[in-house]
Amino acid sequence: MNSNRLRSLPHLLLALLLTFAGAQQATAQDASANTATVSKAGVTPGATAGATPATAAAPAAGGADAAAVQAGDALFKANCTQCHAINEQVVGPALAGISKRRPITWIIPWIKNSAKVVASGDEYAVALYNKFQKQQMPSFGLSDKEITSIVAYITAQEGQPAAAATGGVTAQNAGATDGAAAAGDADTGAGKYVDILLIALVVVLIVMVVTLIIIGNLMKDVLRGRKDLDGRDTEILEQRFDWGKFYRSPVLRGIVGAVFAIVLLYEGVQSVMAVGLTQGYQPTQPIAFSHKLHAGENQINCAYCHTSVYKGKSANIPSANICMNCHSQIKTESPEIKKIYRAIERKQPVQWVRIHNLPDLAYFNHSQHTQVAGLQCQTCHGPIQNMEVVYQYSALTMGWCINCHRETPLNTKGNAYYDNLVKLHDTKNAAAPFTVSSNGGTECSKCHY
Ligand code: HEC
Ligand code: HEC
Ligand code: HEC
Ligand code: HEC
Ligand code: HEC
Ligand code: HEC
Fold it and tell me: Quick check: CB of 299 below 6 Å from ligand 3?
């Protein structure tokens, strides 16, 4: 009888622990369910159930419908993230609040062909274009519906907690736009509440465990003082946790072994996938040359230094002579500039460290992309004009080249060479745009010798 009660003591402890753990989880789930409802409400303020995608095309693009937001997410990531973020300026402006700033009737023609909107003399467009140093945003062969879904995605993102993490600017943006800000605040408020609750529960749990251990020890002491215990009872009473047995248990070894194997496998796969990838590579250069200073603040044209970028295969790294056009006069006493003089005196080129480097098996031609296709340098090289030290912005993998060729429409307007090809394409598949890949841009031999 006694022994029964004794044996059930550890069980009682375990049951208590489990109850508490369960309660804690349930509360956390409740709280997160709350959060979810809050943020959903934030995304679709006053959205009527059953709103069709067609009504979303109306100026109230904020009335987002989940499918449109999802489609917009994919489209935005595929086409816009090179130059835009929601809450911060990248190459182009931050897009938060765009649906309030511009009507959808402006946004659609802008994304289809921003140059045309600027050329039409639209006041807002011209001012924006000048503000961004006359960088032209590329044209996109997207449908009205696709553009509307991108705007819906942007509007949905404005109220997201991830955005709130970027701090005051974001909060201001959201505040200026709509009630999403309030939802966002409630959101983070709920998050804090959950944190405090969890901490409180953990503290309570620890106190409980300590109390139970003390009670357990007290009970043991009382029992030890009793005379009527038989041999088996004392055995249970003096039982200690057998660590040796615990270590040797096959279950524990199995679990540890499995975790170890999974971590090893994951790391292995990660490092194998990254072989040959040099995205983000940012070597220290022999002279502290800054693109931010030259191409950004002083607005020196890229082609002033990279002389063959519109004419030839390679972009060309400038020789010291080009630096001397200015630095025979400017900052002549700077130790960094003296390095240029020393290179010239020694008749040796400056040993710049090469950053971008495709393997020899691939053929890439700059003029085809800059002159013919009219792509911005930033599309592939990122915000060079803000880089103190240049780094490799794109992955430069084959998938990267191919993806762009699949998605980018060819610039065929006013080019008679393409007329017959476009006609042929349209008779076969008029719905799909005439992309680089429709013109054979994904054939192996185009890129591989
Ligand atoms: C190669 C860079 C680049 C890409 C890619 C790009 N944009 Fe832009 N975008 C810009 C620049 C630069 C501006 C500023 C206006 C200018 O200089 O022409 C701009 C302006 C805008 C504006 C006006 C913003 C405002 O504050 O009024 C909108 C809207 C916009 N872009 C949407 C998009 C969308 C949507 C996509 C993707 C489909 C996209 N952009 C892709 C560079 C880009
Ligand atoms: C005043 C001259 C000058 C101007 C203007 C200039 N660059 Fe450069 N660029 C250099 C020099 C020198 C290097 C080599 C040192 C380095 O990487 O910083 C370089 C390196 C680069 C690289 C990396 C090359 C490699 O090793 O793979 C890229 C990409 C690049 N420039 C793009 C641009 C773009 C885009 C612009 C215009 C927005 C521009 N540059 C404007 C001088 C210039
Ligand atoms: C079109 C003119 C022009 C050309 C070409 C040019 N620079 Fe400059 N450079 C400038 C100007 C302007 C500054 C800023 C001077 C200042 O801060 O007062 C500058 C500053 C610098 C500085 C910073 C000096 C310091 O100590 O603050 C370095 C380093 C530099 N240039 C290197 C180069 C190199 C290397 C080249 C050739 C690849 C080059 N520049 C080509 C105009 C030029
Ligand atoms: C379609 C993408 C794309 C565009 C647009 C682009 N580049 Fe490049 N750039 C590359 C790739 C890929 C390489 C690596 C080439 C190689 O290793 O053969 C490269 C290399 C370079 C280099 C290193 C020297 C060389 O030629 O290998 C410079 C400098 C450079 N680019 C400057 C520019 C400038 C300036 C512009 C805009 C006028 C520009 N690029 C536009 C993809 C692009
Ligand atoms: C940002 C988009 C973009 C990226 C990235 C890009 N390209 Fe292109 N590429 C184009 C466009 C647009 C054209 C079509 C130019 C024209 O009008 O002929 C093109 C054309 C070409 C052509 C000529 C195709 C033909 O049919 O004659 C070759 C070859 C090529 N690219 C190679 C590459 C390689 C190699 C890479 C990767 C290192 C690459 N491209 C990355 C956009 C891109
Ligand atoms: C738009 C240009 C382009 C086209 C089209 C293209 N490739 Fe590539 N390919 C590349 C580039 C760039 C690389 C180098 C990528 C890297 O270094 O990660 C590459 C790498 C490869 C490699 C890997 C070589 C190595 O050393 O790892 C193989 C294999 C390959 N391509 C085969 C093909 C085949 C087969 C086709 C036709 C179905 C094809 N490629 C079409 C651009 C292209």
Answer: no
Domain count for the chain: 2
d(CA 258, CA 157): 39
pTM beyond 0.85, yes or no: no
Q: How far is the CA of 405 from the centre of ligand 5 (A)?
A: 6
- Flag whether 12 is in a domain: no
Alpha-carbon span 92 to 83, nearest angstrom: 5
The angle formed by the CA atoms of residues 190, 191 and 197, to the nearest 5 degrees, is 85
369 lines ligand 5 (CB under 6 A): yes
CA of 387 to the centre of ligand 2 (A): 10
Per residue in 165-200, pLDDT (tens digit) is 333 333 333 333 333 333 334 444 566 788 899 999
407 and 78 in contact (C-beta within 8 Å)?
A: yes
Could you say which of 132, 158, 184 is where a domain stops?
Answer: 158
- The answer to whether 145 and 53 have CB atoms below 8 angstroms apart is yes
Kindly state the average pLDDT of the residues 19-41. 41
Burial class (CB in 10 A: 0-12, 13-18, 19+), 251: exposed
Q: How many residues does the chain have?
A: 449
- What domain range includes position 403? 397-449
129 in Cβ contact with 137 (< 8 Å)? no
Q: Ligand 2, residues 293, 308, 390: which to mutate, most atoms within 8 A of Cβ?
A: 390
Ligand 2 neighbour 237 (Cβ under 6 A): no
Between residues 106 and 16, the one the model is more confident about: 106
Q: Is 13 within a domain?
A: no
How many percent of the chain have pLDDT more than 70? 78
Residue that wins the pLDDT comparison between 236 and 21: 236
Contacts of 97 (CB under 8 A, 6+ apart): 158, 173, 174, 176, 177
Does residue 68 lie within any of the structural domains?
yes
- Please compute the mean of the pLDDT values over residues 113-128 and round it to a whole number: 89
Q: How far is the CA of 388 from the centre of ligand 3 (A)?
A: 12
Q: Is the dihedral of CA 251, 256, 259, 265 positive or negative?
A: negative
pLDDT above 60: residue 6: no
What burial letters (b/e) apply to 117-126, b meaning 16+ CB within 10 Å?
A: bbeeebeebe
**Token code pair at residue 251:** 């279950």
8 A C-beta contact, residue 86 and residue 163: yes
Q: Of 158, 192, 220, which residue is a domain's last?
A: 158
In a domain, 298, yes or no: no
Residues 212-271: tens digit of each pLDDT: 999 988 988 888 888 787 888 888 777 777 888 888 888 999 999 999 999 999 999 988
